[in-house]
Amino acid sequence: MDSLEHLRSLTEEQQQCLFRSKKTEIAAISNPFLLLSDLKDNNVIPEKKCKEVQSLSGKEQVKGLYTLLSCLEKSPVKILLFWKTLLKDHIRKSSPELQALQLCLEKSEFPGERGCKTNTENNKQQHFPQK
User: Are 99 and 93 in contact (CB under 8 A)?
Assistant: First the structure.
């Protein structure tokens, strides 16, 4: 199963939690120009916000991108569109950080996913008695 198929198999809640767990990693990419441009071109983010973040540099750009991602986090539809954009070959290849993130997604290594379980899923887990 490829990364996008796996993401589609997750619930909206799990996608949102995964997005939240990777938000800081994504905000810290060394050159977000292509990612931001593609997000803008696909109407995932407004042009004004894209230009604002692109005009920043260094830590301010990381902070601006993080804030922008935090706004996206509130929209499950935008989160899936974001992942689709991030996983495009030309976007992924533009950043070593994004390549590492895709490898993580392909291996289904979702550190934040465990904390994303619904109450129903948590109730299904076996509980071991304490000694």
Answer: yes
Contacts of 26 (CB under 8 A, 6+ apart): 65, 69, 86, 97, 98, 101
What is the rounded distance in angstroms from the CA atom of residue 97 to the CA atom of residue 92? 8
Question: Global pTM?
Answer: 0.78
Q: Which residue has the tokens 């796996």?
A: 6
Whats the size of the chain, residue-wise? Answer: 131
Cα-only R_g, the chain: 16
**How many other C-beta atoms can be found within 10 angstroms of the C-beta atom of residue 94?**
19
Kindly tell me the sign of the dihedral angle through the C-alpha atoms of 43, 46, 48, 51. negative
Q: How many CA atoms lie within 13 A of 74 on its CB side?
A: 5
Which one-letter amino acid corresponds to residue 114?
R
Instruction: Please list the pLDDT of the chain residue by residue as tens digits (131 residues).
Output: 677 888 888 888 888 888 999 999 999 999 999 999 999 999 999 999 999 999 999 999 999 999 999 999 999 899 999 999 998 999 988 888 888 888 777 765 554 444 554 333 433 433 434 44
